Amino acid sequence: MNYSISEHITPEEKMDLFTQVDEITFEFVQWVNTFSEEEMNRIVSEGGWTPAQIADHVRKSNNGIAQAFQMSGVDSERAPDARVNELNTVFMDFTKKLESPKFILPEETVYNKTELIEGLKRSIDRIRQERGNAQLGEIIHLSALGTISKLELLHFVVVHTKRHINQLKNIYQKIKNETNDTD
């Protein structure tokens, strides 16, 4: 049995999901922007990423998602939103460290804040552009996420970005605590 996207998501729900993506990506950019140029490239925990590396990772991920929306898919033989709960469970569990696929690992370099934010905004614009043309009910296969619908990819953008906002908030707090301790 093939599933129609309209059986699983109304036009209102689709617009709500688009709004969620827009709001969470805007919030992410705002958080990245809270760091000074020096703080952007500061590691606050052993083995952790800098705020700039987190932003670069999300930029690379966004570009990959935008590219995935252009892929030819197949009609779903399952509900196109079947993996949404799984994505929420995995990415919203902040107690577990997740391994990033190599192709979206950030560079180990000193980043320019302005250039990084511009690249991040371009990646978000690409998602906005491609999602409007994507057949959200189509299933594709991605090495990092396996078999996934394009609808589920939008949910992934939301939970993945939320996860990294949480990281930025934690880093921001650690930097502020360190600053207060030295005053």
List keywords for this structure.
single chain, 183 residues, mainly alpha, Four Helix Bundle (Hemerythrin (Met), subunit A), 2 strands, 59% helix, 4% strand
Distance between the termini: 65 Å
What's the pLDDT, averaged over the residues?
A: 92
Looking at how many chains there are and whether they match, the oligomeric state comes to single chain
* Strand composition percent: under 5%
Structural class: mainly alpha
CATH class: Mainly Alpha
Supply the CATH superfamily name: dinb family like domain
Largest sheet: 2 strands, antiparallel
Corresponding CATH architecture: Up-down Bundle
- CATH domain fold name: Four Helix Bundle (Hemerythrin (Met), subunit A)
Low-confidence stretches: none
Please write the string of helix (H) and strand (E) elements: HHHHHEEH
**Broad shape:** elongated
Strands side by side in the biggest sheet? 1-2
Structure write-up:
By secondary structure, the chain is mainly alpha-helical. The protein has a single domain (5-182), classed as Up-down Bundle (Four Helix Bundle (Hemerythrin (Met), subunit A)), CATH 1.20.120.450. Helix content is 59%, strand content 4%. The protein contains 6 helices and 2 strands. A two-stranded antiparallel ribbon has the order 1-2. β1 and β2 (146-149) form a beta hairpin. It is elongated, with a radius of gyration of 17 Å. The relative contact order is 0.22.
Give me the secondary-structure topology.
Blueprint: H1 11-33, H2 37-40, H3 51-69, H4 84-91, H5 113-133, E1 139-142, E2 146-149, H6 150-182
Antiparallel strand pairs: 1-2
Helix pairs in contact: 1-5, 1-6, 3-5, 3-6, 4-6
